[in-house]
């Protein structure tokens, strides 16, 4: 089942934010995340807030969902206005899930249209939807492109049938190039999501996945190490000995291979798990998260952040719809980050970026750790001389350890 929501302070029914939210807002980008919680099948490794049709029962249905999101977008505009947060056009919009493209393309287009009516879009805004390769058609992608979508992120995961089977993925490898070609014809940029470290996946399996993905000429590739979450189907299979456990050394070897092949294939890393063909192909929506910009998260379980105020919606689609019906906020709780919290998050996230983190942003204890990190080969010495913390290849493998040394207790 999906992981639990964090604890937090009560969130007001009108969604109004404290004064901190509007401080400096005019200088920050504003984005929108729309969570679509529906999946055809729950993948064995998935811990996201997603539901199949049989799990939902009476309420929260797919055919009514777009209308419910429209209600939250209207409430969002009212709440931000009442909070004194200046109106800003959307820099990025991201539809995630779940499988957003299980909804009709017209529904996704309608949600985007409602968001644009509420806030507008900056010129050249990035508008992305995630999709499974078997959840789109050439016509549905044309509809999305015509509505203003600019980018699609396909959950390819692997090019090897036995790996897809362990992950409970429903598409065949042959479907991916067809979906990519349809997206290209529609004028959409293409990103491919890959997973490495699946039980039973060999290094040659992973090499085949990488070379196959590169052969499709994507603009962007994300490659994530498989994490086994408690309570998932795959965790149970490992516990029962049906499949082998994951191995950290295997993950490290596969990450190194990914970086080698993706770099040779013309993509450059810009975040530890993400590579893009050009800077223009980097996922600007995710960069907004890593750089601490503002975004509203719509949908059950979606998280939002404005000026150091973070809140999250109730998780179940039925509870989400019920909360919005009387025109009240679906937020389950919130937290107001203090200066130290925001500093910790800034270091934690920015260190993962190729652009790195200015050493002058570190507290004294963090600055004192820089020399040791250079000596250990975890950050680039030449960049440190120029005033920036930037990870080496080895540092990317140990990014969490680098952060712990920059943020000593």
UniProtKB/TrEMBL annotation:
SUPFAM superfamilies: Radical SAM enzymes. GO terms for molecular function: 4 iron, 4 sulfur cluster binding; coproporphyrinogen oxidase activity; metal ion binding. Keywords: 4Fe-4S, Chaperone, Cytoplasm, Heme, Iron, Iron-sulfur, Metal-binding, S-adenosyl-L-methionine. GO terms for biological process: porphyrin-containing compound biosynthetic process. InterPro entries: Aldolase_TIM, Coproporphyrinogen-III_oxidase, Elp3/MiaA/NifB-like_rSAM, HemW-like, rSAM, rSAM_sf. Belongs to the anaerobic coproporphyrinogen-III oxidase family. HemW subfamily. This is Heme chaperone HemW.
């Amino acid at each position: 089942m999906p992981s639990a929501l964090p604890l937090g302070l009560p969130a007001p029914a009108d969604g109004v934010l404290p004064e901190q939210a509007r401080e400096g807002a005019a200088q920050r980008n504003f984005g929108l995340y729309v969570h679509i919680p529906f999946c055809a099948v729950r993948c064995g490794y998935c811990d996201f807030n997603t539901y199949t049709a049989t799990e939902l029962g009476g309420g929260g249905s797919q055919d009514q969902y777009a209308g419910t999101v429209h209600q939250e977008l209207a409430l969002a505009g009212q709440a931000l206005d009442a909070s004194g947060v200046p109106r800003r056009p959307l820099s990025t919009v991201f539809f995630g899930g779940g499988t957003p493209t299980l909804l009709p393309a017209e529904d996704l287009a309608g949600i985007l249209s409602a968001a644009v009516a509420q806030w507008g879009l900056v010129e050249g805004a990035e508008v992305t939807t995630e999709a499974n390769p078997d959840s789109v058609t050439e016509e549905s992608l044309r509809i999305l492109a015509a509505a203003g979508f600019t980018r699609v992120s396909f959950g390819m995961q692997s090019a090897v049938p036995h790996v897809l089977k362990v992950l409970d993925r429903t598409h065949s490898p042959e479907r991916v190039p067809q979906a990519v070609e349809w997206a290209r014809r529609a004028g959409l940029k293409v990103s491919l999501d890959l997973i490495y470290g699946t039980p039973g996946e060999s290094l040659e399996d992973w090499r085949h996945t990488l070379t196959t993905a590169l052969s499709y000429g994507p603009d962007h590739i994300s490659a994530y190490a498989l994490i086994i979450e408690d309570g998932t189907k795959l965790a149970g299979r490992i516990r029962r000995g049906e499949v082998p456990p994951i191995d950290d050394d295997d993950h490290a070897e596969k990450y190194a291979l990914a970086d080698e092949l993706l770099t040779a294939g013309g993509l450059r890393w810009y975040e530890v798990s993400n590579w893009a063909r050009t800077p223009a192909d980097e996922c600007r929506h995710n960069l907004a998260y890593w750089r601490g910009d503002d975004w509203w998260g719509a949908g059950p379980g979606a998280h939002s952040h404005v000026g150091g105020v973070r809140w999250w919606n109730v998780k179940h689609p039925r509870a989400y719809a019920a909360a919005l019906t009387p025109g009240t906020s679906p937020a389950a709780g919130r937290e107001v980050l203090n200066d130290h919290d925001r500093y910790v998050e800034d270091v934690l996230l920015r260190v993962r970026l190729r652009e790195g983190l200015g050493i002058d942003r570190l507290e004294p204890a963090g600055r004192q750790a820089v020399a040791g990190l250079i000596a250990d080969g975890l950050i680039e010495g030449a960049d440190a001389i120029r005033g920036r913390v930037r990870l080496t290849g080895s540092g990317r493998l140990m990014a969490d350890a680098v952060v712990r040394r920059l943020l000593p207790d």
